[in-house]
Amino acid sequence: MKRTLVVFGLILSFGCGLHAQAAAPVDTTVCDIVKKPASFDGKMVRIKGVVFAGFDEFAIKDAADPNCGFQEDAIWLSYPPGTKGKAGPIAMVVVQPAHNFTGTYKAPSRTPVTLEKDKNFKQFDSLLSQTHQNGADMCLGCTRYEVAATLVGRLDGVADATLKREGGKIVGFGGFGNMNAYPARLVLQSVSDVTPKAIDFSKTDAITKGDVMANQETMMGGPQSYDPIAAMQKLASAMGSDQTGKQIQRAVAVYPKGKEQNGVTIAYTLSNEASPADEAPGTHDSPDGVLFNLSFNRDRMQQDALSRAVIHMGQHVADLRNPNSGDEEAPAYILEYDGWGITAVAAAISGQKYLTLPGGYLLWNVGWAAADRQNDMDAALKDFLSNEARLSR
């Protein structure tokens, strides 16, 4: 009996040692990961980073050097399924093979992650979900804080996040997050050393103080009864056939009419979890074998803001599904530039005085001189994409 107990003890000890060794995270950095994301695929990692949540961002930038020198200088962040966290992007699109996808695709097999929902995580999630408020000014996806922390989780990585095309059709999938544009994703297991940094909105707040959106008072019904797609379809139909009108009409045309099944699905929810269903083939067919799954968080967007989100994400779907010639492999920087450009135009046409972006970047100001508006908008957008969204050309 004694020998049996000793042998059992040795086996148990050896087994625990193997488990601990396999589960030990690799210490690395955001920049090291985005340099060679595929080499970290499936590994448990520990990184020191700064997390930011925005309009269609929920990502980690490097704590020491946020400019890693790549097209996406950040890692997409996701919670494990069932977390029910409060932080995350308020709008996003995920591209997925449809039920009738004709290409070759095999859903990846990933080791499940269990999140430690301790006080550190609760503080972390709470800080990143607190919104910046400045009267009626529209500040799309603006949070009060970015958060420095030590993060442990499973790293999912691919060598290239670009959607693969043949003959104009999408035949291959890769990345993670909004537009599947990020080559690396961290599925969070634990967070520690949580340190908030308040985002400075003082400059834009001073300009936009007291603003009331021109058409806000005409809205009828509560948030749940307002139809943002119908509102933007009405705006598009009223536009002329000039370049601006055509751009808005193109962005709105992606949305299904009535019970039409056109491969674009819409959910009014918060998307911040790494669901295996997002990487598996969908259950519905699509005209081109690809699904574009859109999510909008109604809790973080009122009526006009929701309409701007509809235009923005519609532009993304149009650019991904039917890219203009030469833009078939456009990086996320270009896609976001186009998305925010049409969003600002829709805001101006709708009578908004201002439009503020996460980080305190003023994208539209009715007070700008007419001759300077294009240059002012271009400068603000380039600063935002490079310094806040951590994207480059």
Overview in brief:
With 393 residues, the chain is an alpha+beta fold.
Question: How would you describe this protein?
Answer:
It is a single chain. This protein has 9 helices and 13 strands. Strand 1 (26-27), helix 2 (30-35) and strand 2 (44-53) form a beta-alpha-beta unit. Residues 1-22 and 213-222 have low confidence and may be disordered. The strands form 4 sheets. The protein has a 5-stranded mixed barrel with strand order 2-3-4-9-6. A 3-stranded mixed beta sheet has the order 5-11-10, with helices on one face. A two-stranded antiparallel ribbon has the order 7-8. The chain has 393 residues and is of the alpha+beta class. It has 2 domains: 25-198, no CATH class; 202-262 and 303-388, no CATH class.
Write the layout of secondary structure elements.
Layout: H1 2-23, E1 26-27, H2 30-35, E2 44-53, E3 58-62, E4 75-78, E5 91-97, H3 119-129, E6 145-157, E7 164-166, E8 169-172, E9 184-198, H4 202-208, H5 228-238, H6 243-252, E10 264-267, E11 290-296, H7 303-321, H8 332-349, E12 354-357, E13 361-365, H9 373-388
Parallel strand pairs: 1-2, 4-9, 10-11
Antiparallel strand pairs: 2-3, 2-6, 3-4, 5-11, 6-9, 7-8, 12-13
Helix pairs in contact: 5-6, 5-7, 6-7, 7-8, 8-9
Descriptors for this entry?
single chain; 393 residues; alpha+beta; 2 domains; five-stranded mixed β-barrel; three-stranded mixed beta sheet; 9 helices; globular; disordered N terminus
